[in-house]
TrEMBL record:
UniProt xrefs under Gene3D superfamilies: Leucine-rich Repeat Variant
Keyword Repeat: yes
GO biological process terms, semicolon-separated: SCF complex assembly
PANTHER family: TIP120 (PTHR12696)
Keywords for this protein: Repeat, Ubl conjugation pathway
Keyword Hydrolase carried by entry: no
InterPro entries reported for this sequence: ARM-like, ARM-type_fold, CAND1/CAND2
Name of the protein this chain belongs to: Uncharacterized protein
Signal sequence segment: none
One Pfam family per UniProt: HEAT_EZ
Length: 190
């Protein structure tokens, strides 16, 4: 994490390798590997924002996928589940689904790392806010229902960062010479 800036010149080689290790299409089942990849993206975005620009779209797409990553929890709001609902009364209550317990679930670390990567994208590229807001805001809002408190706090923090950056952008627009000219023209005619 601390050496991200040293990799700047090598990112053209490194980022595709990291992306391949956490590609949603590869059905990676090791949450620790995914978390490490997301942490690498976070470091690259914060320390080498110019060098990682060409990979931002792929990083954002992968990160948005993992923001919802919860393989051990069936969310009734998922569109895929709407057609496959099963009557709970017909299910055997004695079946606990195997030896799995919530204590073994580390997928929350993946979702938390994904939220941090989104925050890094927002902070490192305020010039892209017009593109980012429609893409990220609905996804972040949909994760307000997160069941893990640590992840929920990071999602809320990321959404807050998005709002702060939008506010800064709006303030910059209002204080730009073009905005003053428009305001000046409007006040002369009134």
């Amino acid at each position: 994490r601390s050496g991200g800036y040293r990799l700047g010149k090598q990112l053209e080689l490194v980022v595709p390798l990291v992306l391949s290790q956490c590609s949603p299409s590869e059905q990676i089942s090791d949450p620790e590997m995914i978390e490490s990849c997301l942490q690498a993206f976070d470091s690259f975005l914060l320390r080498c924002p110019r060098e990682v620009v060409t990979f931002e779209a792929d990083i954002a797409k992968t990160t948005l996928y993992y923001l919802k990553y919860d393989p051990n929890y069936a969310d009734d709001d998922d569109e895929e589940m709407d057609d496959a609902l099963v009557d709970d009364d017909e299910m055997d209550d004695d079946d606990d689904g195997g030896d799995y317990s919530d204590d073994d679930d580390v997928s929350w670390k993946v979702r938390r790392a994904a939220a941090k990567v989104l925050s890094a994208i927002i902070v490192s590229r305020p010039d892209r806010l017009p593109e980012l807001v429609p893409q990220l805001a609905p996804e972040l809002i949909s994760r307000f229902k997160e069941r893990e408190e640590n992840v929920k706090m990071d999602v809320l923090s990321t959404f807050n960062e998005l709002l702060v950056q939008v506010g800064h952008g709006r303030c910059s627009e209002l204080h730009s010479p073009d905005a003053m000219a428009v305001e000046g023209n409007g006040s002369k005619s009134g």
